Amino acid sequence: MSAESEGKRQKTAAKEPRTKVALITGITGQDGSYLAEFLLKKDYEVHGVIRRSSSFNTGRIEDLYQDPHLDTRKLFLHYGDLTDSTNCFEIISTVRPDECYNLGAQSHVKVSFEMSEYTADTDGIGVLRLLNAIRSAGLVEKCRFYQASTSELYGLVQEVPQRETTPFYPRSPYAVAKQYAYWIVVNYREAYGMHASNGILFNHESPRRGPTFVTRKVTRAVARIYKGMQDCLYMGNIDAKRDWGHARDYVQMMWIMLQQDTPDDYVVATGETNTVRLFIELAFKCAPVGIEIGWKGKGVDEVGFDKANPDRVLVRIDPKYFRPTEVELLIGDPSKAKHKLGWEPTTKMQDLCSEMVLADIALVEKGDMTS
Ligand code: NDP
Ligand code: GDR
Prior knowledge:
Layout: H1 10-14, E1 21-25, H2 30-41, E2 45-50, E3 75-79, H3 85-95, E4 99-102, H4 109-114, H5 116-136, E5 144-150, H6 173-192, E6 196-201, E7 204-205, H7 214-226, E8 233-235, E9 241-242, E10 245-246, H8 247-258, E11 266-268, E12 274-275, H9 276-286, E13 293-296, E14 303-306, E15 309-317, H10 335-341, H11 349-366
Parallel strand pairs: 1-2, 1-4, 2-3, 4-5, 5-6, 6-11, 7-10, 8-15
Antiparallel strand pairs: 9-12, 13-14, 14-15
Helix pairs in contact: 2-8, 3-5, 5-6, 7-9, 7-11, 9-11
Bound molecules: NADPH dihydro-nicotinamide-adenine-dinucleotide phosphate and guanosine-5'-diphosphate-rhamnose.
NADPH dihydro-nicotinamide-adenine-dinucleotide phosphate binds next to helix 2 and strand 5.
């Protein structure tokens, strides 16, 4: 898919009555692709920021592609990067969005220990750049702002379940950067009256999840093991607990938050938590010929084996996947979102896991394991 800078937004901008205009940073990511789909169905004009890369990075939005020569098209892409202030200002002042969804981020927690400064720049200061661009472009009254905040802010357990009032204790450079982002959004809301909101989203997954996040890593491996392409899955801390929902449900909440008269911050979660270990067990069971996993050994020597054939080791522990500081337990309390906004998650973890395993098996069968 080609990208362009829509210098004047020509014909589309002149149409009356004007449809709403949304700008999405991170449109090529898991959430960005679901959100773009959702907004296009609502007849928004959607603008997305994509990064220049040496190979295509638009796979997740390929189905939304519209011929750039069509007058009727509703999806526009702009090259950009959250580390580039001039570029942020140019895009904001050109697109003049009614709603800006900031989903762009270096979003991998483990990688943030290796790329700490870049993560701070993108995930922390990047948000400041966008907010300042909105102010400099004179769009404070017009443009509503959504910030992709995260349950990683809760980090070291202070209270369970975690809710909007639970103190933050970030445990990674990613989470520390996101804490800056969270507070700059609150500050600009209070200081300048911006309609800016934080969605504190707990882990959400889908067949479009990046392949190095734990759920997708597991479901891809199960698919490959099932098809005889891989023998064993190597994991880090399988006793970590996460509150996993479906990305499709969660992007709706981003939109609902920006339709409110008053901006606010909301926890978005299922309210249930499970271990990585359980997710692995479920994923192996979800294959068309399910495998029951048993466990033996301790610590880094623990292995997961096929109960029907105990010599067949399918899961091993590799210390390289452990993090210098871990977030052991996340479970969110989404009561505020439920009561104030009427939002409910619809997908149970078992169904999510099964959808992901089957989607990955279909990809293996197509010979496409590039995504
Ligand atoms: P992904 O990693 O799938 O997508 C991240 C997106 O950000 C990609 O489009 C990526 O572009 C883009 N990006 C990365 N760096 C930059 C940069 N410097 N400038 C501009 N864009 C950049 O993440 P998700 O879709 O899962 O998450 C979306 C947002 O929500 C992120 O901010 C994440 O931190 C946050 N979040 C996610 C949760 C989850 O469970 N998924 C939970 C809570 C918060 P490219 O495709 O080129 O790499
Ligand atoms: P997380 O997601 O760090 O919660 O951040 P991830 O799926 O990477 O890890 C979840 C838990 O699984 C443990 N784990 C492993 N993780 C990975 N990636 N690979 C492994 O091999 C492995 N083994 C065990 C991790 O230690 C961790 O405890 C995600 C991202 O989407 C963030 O951007 C977002 O803010 C949070 O979710 C909410």
